[in-house]
Specification:
transferase (chains A, B); ATP-binding (chains A, B); 15 strands; 31% helix; 8 helices; glycerone kinase activity (chains A, B); Dihydroxyacetone kinase subunit DhaK (chains A, B); Rossmann fold; six-stranded mixed beta sheet; homodimer; DhaK_dom (chains A, B); globular; alpha/beta
Chain lengths: 333, 333
Amino acid sequence: MKKVINNPENVVDEMLEGLLLAHSDQLRSVREDNRALVRADSPVQGKVAIATGGGSGHLPLFLGYVGKGMLDGVAVGNMFASPSAQVMVDVTRAIHGGAGVLYIYGNYGGDVMNFDMACEIADMEGIRVETVVATDDVASMPKGHEEQRRGVAGMFYLYKLAAAKADTGADLDEVKRIAEKASAHVRTMGVALSSCTLPAVGRPTFEIGHDQMEIGMGIHGEPGVRRGPLESADAIALSLVNSILEDMPISSGSKVSVLVNGLGATPLEELYIVYRKVHELLEEKGINIHRPYIGEFATSLEMAGLSVSILLLDDELRELLDKPFSTPFRTQN
Amino acid sequence: MKKVINNPENVVDEMLEGLLLAHSDQLRSVREDNRALVRADSPVQGKVAIATGGGSGHLPLFLGYVGKGMLDGVAVGNMFASPSAQVMVDVTRAIHGGAGVLYIYGNYGGDVMNFDMACEIADMEGIRVETVVATDDVASMPKGHEEQRRGVAGMFYLYKLAAAKADTGADLDEVKRIAEKASAHVRTMGVALSSCTLPAVGRPTFEIGHDQMEIGMGIHGEPGVRRGPLESADAIALSLVNSILEDMPISSGSKVSVLVNGLGATPLEELYIVYRKVHELLEEKGINIHRPYIGEFATSLEMAGLSVSILLLDDELRELLDKPFSTPFRTQN
C-alpha cells in the first residue's frame, strides 16, 4: 500500500502537528508531544467534561470529536495503540471544570487498563471520574457477553448524546446515564474488503482474497464471524441489518438513527448504495429512520469496507441527537 | 478493486436513491430519474440561483454542494460522464427565482457543450443564465492557456464564494464577478498513487507501478505532467506548492485559504501530514493561511492520492468565505 508519509515512525506526530496548525481555533495541545488535545476553551466551568482516547489511524475517531457540543478532550495513542495513563490524566486535568469528568472509549484491553489507572490518579487529585465503555460491535462476542464486545463506529452516538446532555447543565450521574443508555441502544456490524497497512510495519495487517470479504472484522483487523465470497451491496446490507436486529430486536413503529460508516477506502457512493437498502429493510419492518449519518466516522487507515450502526431512539435520545455540535471534522446545525 | 455495489449498471441510480432517502429534508428531485436535484426549498425567490453539474463518481462533488449558503441545484451524469442538456434545463427551471441563474462547472468537453445548449434553451424561455467555468488544475495546460485547463477541487471555492455573494441579494452580474474572481485566484495541483475502477468497466482506468506516483493527474485519470517514484509527503507537498506558486505568484503578507483534498482512498491522517508541510512552506514565504479545509471534497471513486488548492484572498473573498453554509456533506458555522 502506497502512503503519502515521511518517516513511518513520525506519522502520528506529523499528523498531530498538521491538525493543530489547521484547527488551532478549536483545539489546544496540553502536552509538548501533542498527545493530549482539548477544546481551545477548556475547561468549561461548571459543565461535566467528557474525554475519550485511543490509538491513531481511525480519523475522525478519536480526536475528530473534540469541539463544542461534543467532547472536551482526547488522549491520542500511537498507531492502533492505547495512549498512556499519564496522557489521559493530563487531558483530565485540562478539561475538568469542577463538575467531574466522564470517560467514554472503546472496549480494548490497553485502553481499559490505562483509563482505569488514569481514573485512580484523578480520584486522588480530587477529580471525580466516571466511565462508560462502548461495546457496540455485535460481531465481537455473542449475545450474553455484550460487556466484552469491542467499541467501534457506534461510539459516535455515545459521544454525541452524552455531550448534548452535559451541555444542558446535567450532573455527572445524569450524563453517565445517557452514555449508558446510548450504549445499551446501539449496535454495529461491519464488513471488511481489504486490509490496511500500518506505516511502521509496511505490509498488510491480514490477507484477504481478491474476491473475499469478512463480515464482523474489527477495525484493527480482528477476525470477524464469517469470511466468504464478496456479496452484493444489498446482500451485505441485509446481513448487517439482520445481525443487528437479531441481537437487539426493534419493534415496528420505533424510531432509530442509522450510521453507515466507511472504513477508509470505500467511496461515499457505495455507502449511499448500502444506505438505500438499509432504509428499505427498516421501512419494511415499520422502523422509521431519524437523522441518518453517512460518511467516514471511524476508519482503519485505508481499509476498504463499511459498517452499519443502528441506534434505537426514544424521545429523550432523539432530542439530544438533534442538538448542534461543531468539531473540525463535522458540524451539525 | 472490490466494490460494495449491486449491478454495476445501477450504481448511479441506487446511489441517488440512497442520497434522496437520507437527505430529503435538504434535497428534492425534479425528474423521475433523479438526475436533477435541487434544494428542498427551491426556488428561492429573488435570489440569483447557482447550478452545477458533472459526472458521478466524485462525491461530494457535485451533488454534495447543494444546500443553504451553497448551490441551488445540480445536474447529475453517469459515472465520469456529463449530464444531458435536458437535465440541466430541468435544474435551471426548478431553481430560477426570478433573478437569473449562474452555471459553475468544471471545464470538460461534454459539460461545456451541454451547459451551453442548456443556456440557449433557458434563454429562449426567458431565464437569464451566465456561466463561469472552473479551470483551476495547473497541471492540465501550461501558463498562458489557463482557460483550457480542467476544473478540479478548487471549484469548491467558486461555489462557496459565489453562493455567499448570492445570499447577500447581489444581482447576477455581481455573483458572476465573484465566481470569476474566485476562479482567477485559485490553483490546484494533485498527485495520484493509484487508479480507480469504473464499476461498469471492472478494471483500473490506468496502470501505475506499485512504487510510482503521477503528479498532475486528472480526476478521471487524465495524464499528468510527471510520473516518477513515490516521494515523501514533504517532497510531494513542496512539489505541489511550488507548481502553484510558479503559476500564481503570491507575495509575502498575503492571506490564502488552502484545501487539501483526498481523492478517495487516502486516509485523513495523510492529508494532515501534507497540510503540515504546506503550512510550513507558506509560512516561510510570509503567506498566512485563513480557514484551511482538509478532507474529501472532490474524489475519483477509490483513487489514492490528493490535491492541494490555494485560494488567494482579499478582504471581499475572505468575508464571503467565512459565511456559513449547510449541505448534506459539510456544514460551516
